[in-house]
Amino acid sequence: MKSRSDEELFALLRTAIDEIDPMPQGLVDRTIAAVAVADVSREYALLTLMENAHAAVRGDSDTTTLQFSDGAASIVLHISRTASGRRRVDGWVDADATELRLIQGEGPDERTWTAVPDEQGRCAFDEIPPGLSRALLVSTGAAKDLLTPQFEV
Predict the structure, then answer these.
(1) Do residues 73 and 118 both lie within one domain?
(2) Given this model, what pLDDT does residue 26 score?
(3) Contact (Cβ atoms closer than 8 angstroms) between residue 126 and residue 82
(4) What number is the average pLDDT over the span 51-71?
(5) Helix, strand or coil for residue 35?
(6) Domains in the chain: how many in total?
(7) Are strands 97-104 and 111-115 parallel, antiparallel or unpaired?
């Protein structure tokens, strides 16, 4: 009996599977449509690190600017260290929003700070403790809310 290479065996296996249990017609198109309908892209906001610089204001303090976008709305956050060692988070949004929330922790340990963006979409959070955080942009009208992935404050 002739010995076959792994590649030959895998090719035979693929052929057998295609003949016995072929992929249903239109499966790929239906899957793409299902994902689009579920609007999965809004579940995972795109995180883009725009800048990670050091600024001097009465000493060295770390500053970071982050941008989150899901294609319909964007949030820009500028995070800087305060004199107390906590953080100041300045935010800008480009969508109609009723509020921007900063969330740390989960479940019973969750802490939330809320700010209302002004007419230019600007808001700020003062004296935020360092830690993993997420931002939630609460939109007006039919637009969906934007919840960011976790980031370090």
Answers:
(1) yes
(2) 84
(3) yes
(4) 63
(5) helix
(6) 2
(7) antiparallel
SS3 content of the chain, % helix, strand, coil (to 5): 20, 45, 35
**Which range marks the domain in which residue 123 is found?**
43-152
Average pLDDT over residues 96-121: 92
* Together in a domain, 22 and 82: no
pLDDT of residue 1: 63
Three-class secondary structure of residue 116 per DSSP: coil
Is 66 found in the same domain as 28? no
Return the DSSP state at 36: H
C-alpha distance across the termini of the chain, in Å: 66
Q: What is the mean pLDDT of the chain?
A: 81
- 132/63 same-domain check: yes
- Whether residue 84 is found in the same domain as residue 145: yes
What is the token pair recorded at 81?
């260290």
Q: How many CB atoms lie within 10 A of CB 117?
A: 21
What is the pTM (predicted TM-score) of this model?
Answer: 0.61
